[in-house]
Structure formats: structure tokens, C-alpha cells
Amino acid sequence: MAVLDQTESPKFHQVRSIFGHGKDRQDAIKRYEFIPTGGMNEVIKQWQDKQPNRELVAASPSQITRCPRSIWLELHGVAPLQETTWALKQRLLLGRLFENQFAEELESAGMLLKHWKDDPNEPDQKFHYGAPDDPAHFEGTPDYLIALEYMGSVVTAISDAKTSRSDAFGYVPIEDFEIWTDGGWFKNRMQLVGYYILAHSNPKWFEERKLPLPDVNHLFTYALDDGVVRREVIWKPTQADIDLFLKYARRFNAAMNATECPDCTCGESLNGFEIKFCKYGVKEEGKKICESCCDDSLIPVKEG
Fold first, then answer.
1. Strand, helix or coil at 172?
2. pLDDT grade, residue 14 (50/70/90)?
3. Cystine design at 159: which of 71, 218, 219, 257 (Cβ 3.0–4.6 Å)?
4. Domain contains 170
5. Dihedral (CA of 20, 26, 27, 31) sign
6. Can you say whether the dihedral through the CA atoms of 138, 271, 97, 159 is positive or negative?
7. Those residues with Cβ within 8 angstroms of residue 151's Cβ, 6 or more apart along the chain or in another chain
8. pTM exceeds cut of 0.85
9. Residue 104 maps to a domain
10. Would you say 214 and 234 are in contact if contact means Cβ atoms under 8 Å apart?
């Protein structure tokens, strides 16, 4: 039987001490923030560093609410102030792995009609809206097409899976009509509206595969650390939804084609959501989200 070394008593037993105000608080913070170097972290970093970055080539549902200035800056080679680190890439990878797991579970329940896999080795499955020169052109790939019960009937839905931490839901409303006042959830709503538009703009693809076009959208968010779905919403996109999405698409394409740097619109987003997570945002020391973004000083100066 193993015997613990009792020569030095620990100062505390739980990292949760970080939330207290005792004499060991700073030591608790150090332990909470400590990340070992080398070892498995180096293995993960090296693997992620070899993975190709996705290039910005067209407007897409997942980025449709993005600020025109940040789009322009990226396309003109301005390095982002907030890099996508190997650790964040690893977390995003978990979302893709869980997406495949949800597909297996939906199939087991007899609900899955189609899963568009978001894997690097999968062939390009993008749907397109409009020709490349259309001011509202965009392209993208949904997660799932499923059958589910909604308002007493079995309907077909474009479904999308999101992942998050359970503590983040303390800031997210519960009721359907309130949840869209959250900046992140509004962005998700627009993303699914885009997939709905893409499906209905490509009816032949569905017809050839004997698949029905979607009646509604279905969005759910899974808490990675406690293993349950924390929010789930079903709704039928309105004409206002569709008009707003296409307005965003036209704004996106205008930014991609602009010769002069557009104005920043991050501050117009719900709850300042686009500021908080802007690639060209500035974080104050100790903060996890940006408090300002897209500064004029980032705009390249023309020579001559």
C-alpha cells in the first residue's frame, strides 16, 4: 500500500481556492494558471502547427456577421493581434470530433438523414448561393439534415452542433425568444439561416439524393466538461432572417472587394460580441476578451 510523503503539508487541497480571498489566494491563482511545458503539450503543439490554416476565400455562414474592416485587414496581409493558438485549435478540434459523435447518436435514434463531415480528408461538399460575382454570393457546408418532432409534426431540419464550457451558460438566456439577444447566439442563428438558404437554393442536389429540403433550423450547444446539451432551439427562418443574412453577405463581399479599408462595425454587434472576439482586438492585461478593436493604426500606409 502506497504511503504519502507527509513531511510537507499542502497549503490547500482544491484549486477552487482561487475564488476565495484567503492568504493563499495568489498561490492558488498560480496553480490554476500553471501549464506544464514540453511533454504532451509539445506533441499537441507540433501536430497542430502542421495543420493547414483555412484561407478566407468567400463569404461563409460561420463568419457572416464579421466586421468588414477585419475582413479587409486579413485579406491585405495585416497580422491579427489575437492569434489562433495551438491550444485553441485543439479545442476547436474537439468540436469536430463531437460533431461526428453526435452524427452516430442521431443515426442510432433514426433521426439522421445526412451528415456533412467537416474533416480535412473529406471531398469539398460546399453549397453555393449565386455566382461568384453576385454581390450576395456565399458558400458553406451544414452539419446535419435530420428528422425531428416540432409542433406536433415530424419535420426536416438543418441542424448545427456547438460546444462550450458549462460555466459559460450562466450568461446565456434560457427562453427561446430571449436567447437571440445574446451576441454569440445571434451569430449562430445567422449561420443556420445561411445553411437554410443554401439548401433551398440547391434543390436539385437534395432531389437527386432523395432527401427533403429543410422545414426548420435546429441549434444545440453541448457543454464539453459536463457532457450534456445545455441549450436547444428549433425555429423556422422568417423572411426577415433571410433578408438580414443576405444584407450581411453583401457587406462581406463589399469588404472583400474594397480598395479602401472599410469602417469597423464591431461596436454595432449585440452586446459588443464582435469586439470581444475580434482578430484585431486588444486585450487588457488579465482579461480574456478584447475591449477595443480594429484601430486605424492597423491600416497599411500607401507608399508614394
1. coil
2. very low
3. 218
4. yes
5. positive
6. negative
7. none
8. yes
9. yes
10. no
